[in-house]
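To close the section, here is one more complete example, presented without commentary so you can practise reading it yourself. The ligand is NAP.
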Amino acid sequence: MPEVSSAKRSAVAPDFDVVIVGGGLAGLYSIYRFRKMGLNIRAYEAGDGVGGTWFWNRYPGCRCDVESMEYSYSFDDDLQQEWVWPERYGTQPVILEYINHVAKRFDLMRDVQLNTRITQAVFCEKKHLWTITTNNGEQITAPICIMAAGNLSTPRKPDFPGLDNFKGDWYHTGLWPKEGVDFTDKRVGVIGTGSSGVQMMPHIAAQAKHLTVFQRTANFSLPARNAPLDPEKERKHKEEYRERRLAAYNTPFGIAGYPPPDKSALEATEEERRAIYEDKWQEGGSISYLFAYKDLLLNKDANDTASDFVRNKIRATVNDPNTAELLCPDNHPIGTKRLILDSNYYEIFNQSNVKLVDVKSAPIQEITPNGIKTTESEYQLDAIAFATGFDAMTGAIKEIDVRVDGGTTIEEQWDSGPRTYLGLMVAGLPNMFMITGPQSPGVKSQMILSIEWHINWVANCLSYMRDNNHTRVAAEVKAQQQWVDHVREVADSTLYPLANSWYMGANIPGKARVFMPYVAGVEAYTKECNRVTQNGYQGFEFSTNIS
Ligand code: NAP
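Output:
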C-alpha cells in the first residue's frame, strides 16, 4: 500500500500505512509480517504489556488446552527450534514469557503503543482513510485497519445487585491482578464452571479455607494429563516441525497427527467403544477424544455414547452421589460447548472444604455485604471470583465505534449476529480486516495457525492492491450473504447449535443467538480462501482513489 498511498496522498499524509488494534499474538505477528513488506505500522494495546489473552488471564492454574509443541508461531524456524517448552501444555506465565521473547527477538515493541485503547474507527470514503481515536483522545490516520482485538478479550460478569456493598474482594479470571491473590484462610466463592473456573478451582481448593462452587450448567471436562515434556518427543517433533505445520492446514482443527476416524460410534460394540474411550481418556486432550469416531459431533445417538462415558467417569470419581449427579452435564452433547481439560477438577469435590451449589435450581439473587444469596440460602464469603466468561468473538470489535463516515456502527450492523465474508472483512467497512474474526475457524482451531493464515492472507491482499494501484478493498454484499448462509448451513449440519454456548452468544443476556465460528474445519476454510484468491479475489471489490 505505501506506494499507492504516497502517490495519491493529498497534502497531509496518513500517519501510518496500517493501524493494528491489539497487541496479542495476532497484533505482534501483524507487526512482523507487515514490517517485512516495508509498511509503516503501529499497534495499539490497552494493557501495559503485550500478550493479549495471556497478559490478562493470570488466574491460578491458567494453562493452554492446546499442546505446547503446537501452540506457537511457525513463521521463524530458528525460533521454533530454539524455544523449549517445559510441559505438555503451556502455563500462562510460560506462554507470556514466550510472547515477550518473540517481541524482543524480532524488535516488535518499537511499533507498539501500550496503555492505549482504541475507542473509535471511522472510514472516509472520499479519502479511503481510517481515522482512529484512542481513549487518550489521540487521532491517527491510516488507509488500512487491522482488528486483532481477540475473540475472548471482553470479560463479562453478571449484573448481580449488591456487588458494590460486598465487604470482601472480588476478581474476574480475565482481569486477574498481576501480583496474584492469596486465598489462604479465606472463604472463597467461584461463579462459573467453564474452562477458566475448572482450571482455577483445584488451586483455590488447595489454598483456601473453604471453596463454594456456584454452578449453573455442568460442563464436560477431560483430564489434560499434563506432564513435563518428554525430551525425545520434543526432539522428534522439532525434527518434523516444517512438515507438521504444513500438514496442519489439511486437518479440521489445524493440528497434525490425529488421523481422521472413519468409523461411526454406532458401528462399534459397546465393549469396543468403552475400550476406545478409555484409551483416549488415559491419553488426555480433547481432539483425541472427539476423534474417537467420525460422527460424535454429527449424530446425537453417537454422541450419547461418548457423553455417557464421561458422565460415568464423573460418578466414579466423586464420592457423594448427589454431588456427582449435579456435576454430570445433562443439557448438551459433549464437545458442543468448548471441551474443558482439567487437572484434578472432579477430585476436589471429595475434599471437606469444597461445596457445590446448584444455581440453576436456586439462582443467585444478589451479592450481600457478606457473600452470595441465592433463592435458597446465603453463603458467607471473604472473596468472590467470577469465572463467568467473555462477550466472545464479537465483543471486542463491537465495543469500538467502527463505521464508515455517516454510516451505521458495526454494533448496529451486527445486531442480529455477525455478518462477514470469510471472517475477514465486513461488507460496508472497506480496508478493515479482522484476524480470526467471527465466521472463520479461529476459535475452533489451533489459534496461532489461524492467526498466521489470516495475516498472511491480508499481506498478500495488500501486495495485490499495491501491484494494482488499488487504495480500497471491500467485501461484496452478495458474497458476504452467501458466506453467512454457508456458515449457518455447516453449523446446522452438526450438533453444535444444540448447546447454549458462547459460540452461540448464549452466555450474554440479549446477545443474538447465532452460531459464530465456521466449523467445516481449517482444511475446508483455507481451500476456500485459496480458491477465492485464485479467482482474482472473488467476492471482494477493489478501487482506486483518484481525488
Ligand atoms: P465460559 O466458558 O463462558 O464459562 C462461564 C461460566 O460462567 C459458565 O459456567 C456459565 O454458566 C457461568 N455463568 C455465567 N453467567 C452466570 C450467572 N449469571 N450465574 C451463574 N453462572 C453464570 O467462560 P470461561 O470459562 O472463561 O471460558 C471461555 C473460553 O475461554 C473457553 O471456552 C476457552 O475457549 C477459553 N479458555 C481456554 C482455556 C484454555 O486454553 N485452557 C482456559 C480458559 C479459557 P452457563 O454455562 O450456565 O452459562
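Once you have examined the C-alpha cells, check your reading against these statements. The chain is about 30% helix and 20% strand. The radius of gyration is 24 Å.
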